[in-house]
Amino acid sequence: MAVINAQNTFKEVLDTIETDVVVIGAGPCGLFCAFELGLLDMRCHFIDILDRPGGQCAELYPEKPIYDIPAWPEISGQDLTDRLMEQIAPFDPKFHFQQMVEKLDKMDDGRWKLTTDIGQEFITKVVVIAAGGGSFMPKKPPIPAIDEYEGISVFYAVRKMAQFKDKEIVIVGGGDSALDWTLNLQPIAKKVTLIHRRDKFRAHADSVNKMRALEAEEKIDFQIGQVKELHGANGQLDKITIVDGDKNEKEIECDTLLPFFGLTMKLGPIAEFGLNLHENLIPVDTEKFETSEPGIFAVGDINYYPGKLKLILSGFHEAALMSRQAFRYIHPDAKLKFEYTTSSSSLQEKLDVSEKTDKKSA
Fold first, then answer.
1. What's the CA gap between 310 and 148, in Å, rounded?
2. pTM (predicted TM-score)
3. Fewest CB atoms within 10 Å of the CB: 62, 278, 284, 299?
4. Do the domain assignments include residue 354?
5. Rounded to the nearest 5 degrees, what angle is found at the Cα of 308, between the Cα atoms of 127 and 320?
6. How far is Cα 307 from Cα 76, in angstroms, rounded to an integer?
7. Of 243, 261, 279, which closes a domain?
8. Residue where one domain finishes, among candidates 261, 283, 299
């Protein structure tokens, strides 16, 4: 499976991608779409704002057990993600991480054009929205006038490491993102200062130990406190003021600020797609799970219909029925046949299990 990470904070000219289906969201329900679509010979690209597949399962509770997945008495969010990735591997879906769809436009030929926040364009006949509760958006710290610096010297994600070469960087936070980027940017930055409100971290112990080692070697600076004020002009930082628990203030020179305060779930640009909404959810029919716009579907927690249950297993069912209607858009002149993977040799060939089945039969 190809994984394409967004590696540029600034929009640039990128080659337009044409495909059969674009799935917005790479959580469990979205991932299973690739399986059902693949069985019916439809190519699939994923767009997700996170940096890896799994959605809420992998981001918020990767080690938390899930008890209502059929045939799995207990499985963690990360294990479920890994199993789904293994299951869809034969169909070679493409993944575009750390991107968010900003625009959705209907083209004159009936296809859809999606544009992400890094300027990547997709042209497709079918769009599947599998965004869970919405997009994961960065939590902004309550620092006065921080908006004036965003995109110039304040960033909530690292899209291209080279952009931060030889910079004087201040990283704020105590979780995995803050520690990971402290470790990753230290070799290329002019200086890295890590700021956290206390001397305990929520990150993996190995990352904390590596950070402590860099601090001991004076390769990074660690300060306890919180950012109180930004100083600079025209969006460019030159220093910040931090304050510790005793109300002592200190100024730190820097030209880049990376605040990692976690993620929050918001509907985001999906609300501007022109679809009918019901309390920030997307109404669909229960035959095809199609939205108010032909060719646009919604599966998983993002959709709404009478009797809706927000369960992963419900999303799997929705993905199966969605795919059958999507087939009619992608292959309008082909006959849709219903086949079982247990008995169809053609489906088993797609799954690369035909030889295993032959051996068992023998």
1. 39
2. 0.68
3. 278
4. no
5. 45
6. 27
7. 261
8. 261
Q: List the one residue out of 193, 211, 312 whose CA is nearest residue 251.
A: 193
- Dist CA 5 CA 197 (whole Å): 31
pLDDT in tens, 37-63: 999 999 999 999 888 899 878 776 677
| Count of domains for the chain | 2
Distance CA 227, CA 252 (A): 10
Q: For the domain that residue 19 is a member of, what is the CATH number?
A: 3.50.50.60
Count of C-beta atoms within a 10 Å radius of residue 245:
10
> CA 269, CA 347: separation in Å to the nearest integer?
37
Residue 341 lies in a domain: no
pLDDT in tens, 111-167: 999 999 899 999 999 999 998 876 667 788 999 999 999 989 999 878 678 899 999
Range of the domain at 124: 2-136+264-331
Q: Residue 114 and residue 96: Cα distance in Å, rounded? A: 13
Clarify whether residues 29 and 113 are in a common domain.
yes
Residues 129 and 270 in one domain: yes
Based on the fold, state whether residues 125 and 147 are members of the same structural domain.
no
10 Å CB burial of residue 89 (0-12, 13-18, 19+) is middle
